[in-house]
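Homework help board

Subject: predicted structure for assignment chain

Our instructor gave us this sequence and asked us to write out the predicted structure in token form, then describe one feature. I got the tokens but I'm not sure how to describe them. Can anyone check?
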Amino acid sequence: MRSLVSRNLRLFFSSKSSIFFSLLGALISFVLYILFLRQQITQSWSQISNYKQLLDLWLMGGTLTVTAITTTGSSLGVLVRDRESNRLADLILTGLSYEQINFAYLISAWIIGIIMQVVMFVVMLTYFIFQDGISFDTSTLLPILVVMLFSSLLWSVFNMFLYSFVKKVDTVGKINTIIGTASGFFAGVYMPIGAVPTFAQSLMKLTPAPYNAALFRQIMMNQQISDSLNKLPNSAITSFKKSLGITISSGSLNTLDVMFISFGILIILSLVLYRYNKRVVVNKI
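My token output:
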């Protein structure tokens, strides 16, 4: 199984186009923010001290979520390619069980998601340090890494479930394009969740994306919010956090609760489809 994981990683990182297109959704949100969104948002934030730092960290949280979604999805294109070419059936003949083969795809997607999040984090942080002179609390690095690990696992399982329905390689590119574009909206990167209509907010909350972004933002923005908004009453700070998607609640559930529940639901759905896909592959041997 280790050799299969290595093979999947090698196939992904040996293709420059795969790396680029897996990051395209995150790069789009990053570039749009620099060119257009920051200017629009800062018009209503200009009275807040260090508002650029707040905005930059807010963008980073959402973009890391987009990165986790798109890179794990792109990395699983090899699964669809192997399924279409009947290579999955050939792999079973090597002595690996169907469970081991699928777990190898999941592990490789998880690793790729972590690596690409770290890369995107370093790129964004470096840019904002030189461009806006933002300060960064290094004590948040470990919590951020933990969220990266969980985010990559969550979206790896999500994409494994999604690609269970995909049988043709040609379809993968189309799906990745749709997901890459839509993920920026659902993660609340193109505009704050409080700035969209109520129906759109409800739609966003049906996915784990805004909650994932909120976890990143809570960690990265916590100290900066305390410094910049320390003169405002607690009610105003709470309203500010909700408007920007820094804290998101769903009934009595908090952000982390929703993330774990979403993960559990995806695991159950994946296991249901897993049995069907296993029968299809085994019957081809």
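Reply (TA_rk): Your tokens look well-formed. For the description, you could write something like this. The first helix runs from residue 2 to 13. That's the kind of observation they're looking for.
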